[in-house]
Amino acid sequence: MRDVGIIFRREFRAYFYSPIAYVFTVIFVVLNSGLYMFHFFFFGNADMRAFFSSLPLTLGLIFIPAVSMRLWSEEHKLGTVELLLTLPMKIEHIVVGKFLASFLFYLVALAGTLAIPILLIILGKPDFGPIIGGYFGAILLGAFFLAVGIFISGFFSDQIVSLIITSISCGFLALIGWQYVPMVIDGWIPGLGEFLYQYVGVTRHFNDIERGVVDFKSIIYFLSFTALFLYLNAKSLERRKY
Amino acid sequence: MIELEKVCKNYGLTKALIDVSFKIEKGQIVGFVGPNGAGKTTAMKIITTYTAPTSGTVNVGGYDVLENPLEVRKLVGYLPETVPLYSDMLVTEYLQFIGEARHLNGKFKQRYDWVVQAAGLEPVLHRKIGVLSKGFKQRTCLAQALIHDPDVLILDEPTSGLDPLQIIGIRNLVKELAHEKTIILSTHILPEVATISDRILVINDGRIVADGSFDDLRKQVTRRSSVYLAVKSTKKDFESALKSVSDLEDIEYDNNRKRGEIGAHLFFKSSADPVSKLNDLIREQNWNILEFHPEKLSLEDSFIRLTQSTGSNNEQAEETSEEGGAE
Fold first, then answer.
1. Which domains does chain B have, with CATH numbers?
2. CA–CA separation, A123 and A34 (whole Å)
3. Per the CB 3.0–4.6 Å rule, which of A75, A113, A202, B180 could disulfide with A81?
4. What ipTM, to 2 d.p.?
5. Which of A87, A157, A242 to probe the B interface (max B CBs under 10 A)?
6. pLDDT for B248-282, tens place per residue?
7. Residue of B9, B51, B79 to mutate when probing chain A, most A C-beta within 10 A
């Protein structure tokens, strides 16, 4: 457990060594709030439905890949992976440490959007159930996407390649839960779209939680996929030895 | 302390190590010598548990690298060839991180002070690693390998890219550590390890081709002696005349001679006075001498010949075995 902490501290600090972290945090907050504000002024509803409905795509396509891309790609590029993997630490602890650092960074960025609910409280009487549910869902969703991102970054020494492939993968996971996309896939291969929508797609599970329906199945879905990708990440790095 | 038994390592179809076995006792300094791509780095990566051998067993300090990698890693300090450093960190932050990761706790302060002094890092402690010169980067990485006072020290090309003064510095540091630690260092420059190692392992094409002290190796390579001879004659006559000379191992013709002249480097098996033998031959043949002088092979030359000749032998062996397989 101590090893997790040591890796976590170095990784979290590393986010702030370069300006990229600040730039992406600002983009994330501005983009999401901006998209939401349009909706807010147009309909004048004191809720955050619009904010949360666009979240799977903005997170999956842009923000998460940018946060996760450096986790292993940078180590491969600098050669420091050789240093890390010859330290007397278990690979699983290193993976978890890195994951938690990126997760905390994501939480900091997500906290930046708390301005919206504060605004809603000042201007109206929002229903807190969906907002709290939404944030809870966003936390789970972010963890899942980050786990996918760290897994993918383990394979590439170029951060941009990691970014693009993570973006495609998370984008796919988000779109597959988007009702229209599975319908199209069902048109090609009957049953496949429905299967992907039910069991693989992220959006459906996210929407469940966001609606305030805290379904145990959806929580299990997010947690188990997060754990699975972290496990795969550790195994894939160990596999590189052979 | 370190024992490799029949270790093979394949990267896809490339064979990086073929049946490598050796044993290094506690306190020995061993130099890995070989041309680039010979398998030195691969052998080191296996000993440090970074890569796994395809077959064979590797034992470091009583622990198997596959079964007990964490225990092996505790014993080993490793300076990889790539000099892995986090370029955004300060030198002191980097060493602190390694100290924590190595679980030094209370011992850290004392080890940190020692390592900073030994590697000469005081002037750059609060600088970003990314802006350091190659020499300081190398030393920062060396400090990383030493900070936990490891029993085994694996240094992959520790002096590459350094200036002569820095090379001497690193050499002295290694010598200083020699008494208490088992050290393996690799290089492709033989004289560099000659002065500090107890033992030299020459690796070529994934095999150990020579193993012994520097003096042993020197005897092995300088047993061959070479003479340059240029006369007025035809190649045919020259060749047939040389057949009568005993101990002649190899002839390398000089293509830069004019027509009607022939010149060649003649390599002899033993140092049994080739000059007087050739003298007799020249008198017999009544040749007109254009040039005639013994040649001293530099250590590097003879080393290259040693690795090349074993390399070609291996190729021949492989060819014959392939033919055997086809039948």
1. 2-220 (3.40.50.300), 225-296 (3.30.70.3100)
2. 17
3. A75
4. 0.86
5. A87
6. 877 888 888 888 888 888 887 765 677 888 888 88
7. B51
